[in-house]
Write a structure and sequence with these properties.
- This protein folds into two domains: 147 residues, PurM-like, N-terminal domain (60s Ribosomal Protein L30, Chain: A, 2-Layer Sandwich), CATH 3.30.1330; 161 residues, PurM-like C-terminal domain (Phosphoribosyl-aminoimidazole Synthetase, Chain A, domain 2).
- 33% of the residues lie in helices and 23% in strands.
- It is globular.
- Strand 10 and strand 11 form a beta hairpin.
- 45% of the residues are buried.
- The longest helix has 18 residues.
- With 339 residues, it is α+β, with helices and mostly antiparallel strands.
- It has a seven-stranded mixed sheet with strand order 6-8-5-9-7-10-11, sandwiched between helices. A four-stranded mixed sheet has the order 1-4-2-3.
- The chain contains ten helices and eleven strands.
- The chain starts with a helix and ends with a helix.
- The structure holds adenosine-5'-diphosphate and magnesium ion.
- The site of adenosine-5'-diphosphate (ADP) has 13 residues, from helix 1, strand 2 and strand 3.
């Protein structure tokens, strides 16, 4: 069905019907001029927004709309996770070109709904307009946290240990593979499928972020969206410190280690691939022993230093400066990359 068969308001009505009715937390949701939302007593509102632009962040030849809906919410959930918050509400603003059918928009919302439901997040509003060319998606996510428990990027101190959750680099490798294996039988391989899955449908570490924040054992935190080298750089910059990372401690998945046909050294996907949506955090040494008790998958990859530089120790023990090589929208041409 074409969008002009049902029009802007027909589409909004469909979106509204497919989501939950007003709730205690959101007494006024889709349908009025603004949503009215409630935050739990003693909590602070966390707000974040991320935009996904066709041709820049995604390519409709390699992603389906369900995955896109999932991912649009996931990247925002990851930001709430990195503050140690609980996500509650989201808003979706879409600019939609005529070639996109109503069914594909419905698939987008099914994907978004699937991940939102897992986290108890309610869609409370948005905006819908037409686009001359590209599909543009802007999602806002609102969450809450107790003021004193919020973890920022700026609390790392020299001597703190640097940790990262899960494994890094899968998404970057998955992006390369999804492009190079458009039809081929490469995609049948389990490892390749897993890497592509991590690129198309990332899993934000919401429960882990909240647990780490509540524990008080974490001095600073950020999610890995641009690549370890860039995001570690952001955290250190905000904290006024540097860091030394040990290359062979960086956690890499079995799928990434075994994948064939990748163009770069696998460590490069971890350092600069981006879109892993893992959590990178620092822990004061006196709290180090508490980390295993949280039962989360986290690896110590280095230490915070007083000197402001980012240093990387390779497997031969030699030290080099780590350049921020993650994704930068305005330097993208240098790397020749549109995701
Ligand atoms: P206004 O003209 O006052 O901005 P709209 O007609 O744009 O109102 O939106 C009507 C209602 O539908 C609002 O509650 C708005 O938040 C919601 N809405 C519009 N587009 C979307 C969308 N893509 N997803 C979710 N809610 C939407
Ligand atoms: Mg509007």
């Amino acid at each position: 069905m074409r969008l002009d068969d049902i029009g802007e308001f027909g589409l909004i009505e469909r979106i509204r019907r497919s989501f939950a009715a007003p709730s205690q937390r959101a007494p006024i949701g889709i349908g009025d001029d603004a949503a009215a939302l409630c935050v739990s007593p003693g909590h602070t509102l966390l707000a974040t927004t991320d935009m996904l632009v066709e041709g820049v962040h995604f390519d409709l030849a390699t992603t389906d709309l369900y995955s896109l809906g999932w991912k649009s919410a996931a990247v925002n959930l990851s930001d709430i996770a990195a503050m140690g918050g609980t996500p509650r509400f989201c808003m979706t603003a879409l600019a939609i070109p005529r070639r996109i059918t109503v069914e594909r928009i419905a698939a987008f919302y099914r994907g978004l709904h699937a991940i939102a439901r897992k986290h108890g997040v309610v869609l409370v509003g948005g905006d819908t307009c037409s686009s001359k060319r590209d599909l543009v998606i802007s999602i806002a996510m609102l969450g809450e946290a107790r003021r004193k428990k919020i973890v920022t990027r700026s609390g790392a101190r020299p001597g703190d240990l640097v940790y990262v959750t899960g494994t890094l680099g899968d998404s970057g490798a998955g992006l390369e593979l999804v492009r190079s294996s458009k039809s081929g039988n490469l995609r049948q391989k389990t490892d390749v499928r897993k890497l592509i899955e991590r690129h198309l449908r990332p899993v934000p570490r919401v429960a882990w972020g909240r647990m780490l924040a509540e524990s008080g054992s974490v001095s600073a935190m950020i999610d890995v969206s641009d690549g370890l080298s860039s995001d570690l750089g952001h955290l250190c910059e905000e904290s006024g410190v540097g860091a030394e990372i040990t290359g062979d401690r960086i956690p890499l998945s079995r799928s990434l280690r075994r994948a064939t046909g990748l163009r770069q050294n696998i460590l490069d996907y971890a350092l600069s691939g981006g879109e892993d949506y893992e959590l990178l955090f620092t822990v004061p040494p006196r709290r180090e022993k508490t980390i295993p008790g949280f039962g989360i998958d986290a690896t110590n990859i280095g230490v915070v230093t007083k000197g402001r530089s980012l240093r990387f120790i390779d497997d031969m023990g030699s030290v080099r400066l780590l350049q921020a090589s993650g994704y930068d929208h305005f330097k993208v041409s240098r790397r020749g990359r549109a995701r």
